[in-house]
Amino acid sequence: MLRIGIIVGSTRPQRRAEVVARWVHEAAARHSAHGAGDVSFQVVDLADYRLPLLDEPVPAAIGDYRNGHTRRWAETVGSLDGFVVVTPEYNHSVPAALKNAIDFLFAEWNDKAAGFVSYGLNGGVRAAEHLRLALAEVKVACVRSQVALSLNDDFTFPDITEPGLCTPAGRHEQILHRLLDEVIAWAGALKPLRQPTAAGPPARAETARA
After folding, report:
1. 25, 41 contact by CB (below 8 A)
2. Which residues, 6+ apart, have CB-to-CB distance to 119 below 8 Å?
């Protein structure tokens, strides 16, 4: 079975990423029920991992993770075959917490697939473009289809300071289903390149941890 993580890409209190991720998860369940294949979806909330600013003493590519929070994050990412990253756009880019979470790891990202559900005043498209560059560097294949939600049209806000409700137009779920199909297909195609173990740091890193 392929395992796809839906990453909640913001840790800000009152964030909207959580309600968007919930919509993605519900839509993914509907898609899976209609023949998306042998695949499971899980929400992965960055806020649950409480990652500090990158504090590992050696580069992530070496795989010698010294901190418990890093090893916990590595175990989760390493256990997944692909990702749907939910991201807002902050100041023309991604939230710092999301970029930081990417930078903590290397091998655990390698040879997997990702798609993006972005949101913002302009659909969060600039954040997604920055994500494509960052994830390409850690060997993640990013699919073409993308859901871009507008804060003006695809949310309902009784109070603008609250997360509100994610109420996307119907076309967005159609695009999301196409995105999911691409992520699933690419994650399956890349599977022979991935390590058979859940988390994939080099063997020397396993020795260093022991």
Report:
1. yes
2. 16, 17, 20, 86, 87, 88, 89, 148, 149, 150, 151, 154, 155
Spell out the long-range contacts of 16-19 with Cβ–Cβ below 8 A and sequence spacing 24 or more. Answer: 16/88, 16/119, 16/155, 16/163, 16/164, 16/166, 17/86, 17/87, 17/88, 17/119, 18/45, 18/163, 19/163, 19/164, 19/165, 19/166
Query: Do you know the residue count of the chain?
Result: 210
* DSSP class of 27: H
| Residue 161 banded pLDDT, cuts 50, 70, 90 | confident
Instruction: Collapse the DSSP code of 47 into the 3-class scheme (helix H, G, I; strand E, B; otherwise coil) and give the result.
Output: helix
β-partners of residue 85 are 7, 116
**Pairing assessment for the beta strands 2-8 and 82-88 based on DSSP bridges:** parallel
CB atoms within 10 A of CB 38: 9
Contact 81, 60 (CB under 8 A): no
> Which amino acid is residue 162, in one-letter code?
E
Are 27 and 86 in contact by the 8 Å Cβ rule? The answer is no
Looking at the predicted structure, is the pLDDT value of residue 163 above 70? Answer: yes
11-62 per-position pLDDT tens digit: 999 999 999 999 999 999 998 766 656 899 999 999 999 999 999 999 999 9
How high does pLDDT run on average in the chain? 91
